[in-house]
Amino acid sequence: MNGMDLTITKTAALSAEAEALTALNDVTARYGLALTEGAALRLVRARGSVLMESGRVGFGPGLIKKLILAFCDSDYLVKEDYEETLASLLEAFYYIKNESGEALTDDEALCFMRERFDESGGSVEPILSALPGELNPRRLFSEEYDAEK
Amino acid sequence: MDAAFRRRLEAELPALLIERAKRYTMGDAESLPVGVAERLAEGVLYPVFLACREESDLAGLPLPELRERGVLSVRRLMRRGQLLFKQALKTAPGIPNRARTETLSEIGAFFHIYDPDFFPQEIPCSIDYPLAEPVSEAIRGIEYVNAWLRTLLTENAFLNRFPAGDVSAFLSALCRYDGDLVLNLASPVAEAALGAGLTGNAPVSLLRTDLERSELLQKLLPLTTGERLRLIERTADAALTALSVTKTEYAYFGKIMLALLPRLNEAVAAGDLSGIFPG
Fold first, then answer.
1. What is the pLDDT of residue A142?
2. DSSP assignment of B220-235
3. Do A59 and B32 touch (CB under 8 A)?
């Protein structure tokens, strides 16, 4: 089995998921962010490719939605490169999932990414340079970690 | 698997796999590494095929229901396996063998960590004790463990027909056996029982004298391979009958005794039977 997305094997499902993303524009508009239908469709397709490249199988349609909601209020997410940044964050997300050896839940991974993203002024690179040892939920979400920072 | 069933599997498997993956991650993730997804897929297919094998008319049921039926069968096989395991402990011959002891300990733990819901096709334990006739590696999960235990019980029953002290003395003469050597105990004992028959002794007499070996060599030398095979067949039948073995033991050890022929031919050609029939 290669990496794949089990939820978007049909074109109709792909379009439905893209529609669900554009529906989020109502939420993100207050931060000046919006996805066109085309951009949403490209992101959904990109997720399939990233899953394949990262050797993972996707089985839920909500990850991009979660990603948008986790980052939309960041000061460093701007409308000019909203789609590109989301695509980069998507790649970073599956990278983090693999590097953590499944130790982080999706929400924990997004939380870690958001922190790194904001700390670095909106760069994805510091997320990708996370060491496996850092991706430990006990460490990440402990008071000691906050103190270390 | 017929074409119609294959088509059904292809159509219904993704949805079932998504459901299983969600349960596996308990909603904490929407993706899994390919390796885990493959294990989950095999964990769906194994009980499905098990259910179909047990009752072929179930094949028309929806895939989730077939899987659930299969998991029930797996659980039933687990209960049977636990009984086999208890029997294996109870009937273990009094001959020390570290690999057998450790394997039984692993199998004991297996029943606590085996996951019939998600990974029933797996065998999460290390089975190091070599059986005389290995269980086919095509058999998976609890079925493999049960087949292994059933075979061990057959070997235990056979070994228990011999005084443990005699078996230990024989193994010591054969290979300086001390309990740590990873060695199947039943196979050399069966061969020795055959050797006893070939030299006109009772099958429980495992050690051979130099004179007996020499006489046996003279007896075998002029025989063709076909004649030696027939001699082994007759002797094996007589030895196993004298030991009052069960039908299962008869079939199992009869095969092991017949399989001795190539090595016996080599030993006869070399003029030395001590490697097979030690004294």
1. 66
2. HTTS-HHHHHHHHHHH
3. yes
The pLDDT, as a whole number, for residue A141 is: 67
Q: Tell me which of A59, A66, A100, A141 to substitute to probe the interface with B (most B C-beta atoms closer than 10 Å).
A: A59
User: Helix, strand, or coil here: B249?
Assistant: helix
Nearest CB to A106; choose among B18, B29, B38: B29
Rounded Cα gap, residues B195 and B235, in angstroms: 9
Residue B15 has pLDDT above 80, yes or no: yes
Interface ipTM:
0.86
Q: Is residue B48 within 8 Å of B66, Cβ to Cβ?
A: yes
Q: Does A49 touch chain B (CB under 8 A)?
A: no
CA distance B30 to B27: 7
Q: How far is B273 from chain A (nearest CA, A)?
A: 53
Q: Does B30 sit within 8 Å of A63, measured CB to CB?
A: yes
CA distances from B100 to A125, B37, B179, B185 (A): 53, 34, 10, 10
Phi-psi region of A88 (alpha: psi -120 to 50; beta: other; left: phi over 0): alpha
Q: Is the pTM of this model over 0.90?
A: no
